[in-house]
Amino acid sequence: MVNRIHGVAIPWWAVHGLTLIGFGCLVLIPVGLGFWFASSGLHSVGRGDWSQIPEAALLYLPVCWVSAVAGITRWVWRHLLHGPPAVLRSDRTRSLDLVPQTTPMVEEYRHHFLVHLPGNEILQLDVAERALDVPWLSPVLEGLVIVHLSDFHFTGRVGKTYFKDVIGHSNLLQPDLVAITGDLVDRPDCIDWIPDTLGQLRSRFGTYFVLGNHDRKAGASRLRRMLVDSGLVDLGGRWVEVLIRDQPVVLAGNELPWFPPAADLQNAPPPSTQGGPIRILLTHSPDQLDWARAQQIDLMLAGHTHGGQVRFPLIGPILAPSLEGVRYASGTFHSPPTIMHVTRGISGQLPVRMNCPPEMAKLTLHAVAKS
After folding, report:
1. Residue 199 class from Cβ within 10 Å (0-12 exposed, 13-18 middle, 19+ buried)?
2. Confidence tier at 43 by pLDDT (50, 70, 90)
3. What is the pTM of this model?
4. Which of 11, 111, 255, 340 has CB atoms 3.0–4.6 Å from 259's, for a disulfide?
């Protein structure tokens, strides 16, 4: 329930209220039932008088059993029976420790006390280098490099210096394009960080962005202006055609469900399957995959889920703000004709990551030889 609440466009007070109710139920219902079973002498299934059990409990317990079977089945499918998609040519990761060796007494170095919790990986950046075989990519664009960034969550809880370091490492990758997929700023005063951080991103053919649900809290209009004034290109609800190596590429933006409408591609060049340029979509949520497939998007870039932010051994992520739950928490997925890449993002509103470090993705696109 909590995952799906965060995948729809409802007011913030409703999101927070329903989330608290969800977590409350998660704790109080099992504790209450356990206490009732113990006090009633029903210590194990199959013993005692089941007629004494309240109807609500008789409904709740089968729901738990069915959910457990469904969850285990999905886990087996994802982790044991379903390998990485064939379009993922290679995937390697290197980790960077962005914890400063010394901490000057200036504001931009200061972090919330949660950052310093034992085991917290919020400052341990993974640089994921993934090579993708894009079926209709022109040979002229062979080796095109995109740096995919998302979910910066400027709140002041993680000092600005961390984000400046992230930008510096992105620039070292010397990308052709930089794609930013939303949730940039949570606190209005942190919009002023943009020129020193995202405004310093460098790429050969531009830095493009869409906004996410958290950007509503900071003031989306002012945030857009600051980003554009800092040299970034706004793709919110529109598409543009850019020339890369004299080859056209369509870049589109979809900020649904929070900022309608999505880009209208009716007047765009035909899709790549019909001889047109490849289409690359920037969107905040992986829930827009069906929209992307309907628009014959070749490559969709998304964030929003943070990879679950806390991943449990063996089980993996539990919380992911998506209508699909944890299905698209992070990684590369292929649902023809669309390849979708979901990044874990750079930070989080709550500065805690366990077994799920932040991620910067370097995507190298490869043309597939036609037989």
Report:
1. middle
2. low
3. 0.90
4. 255
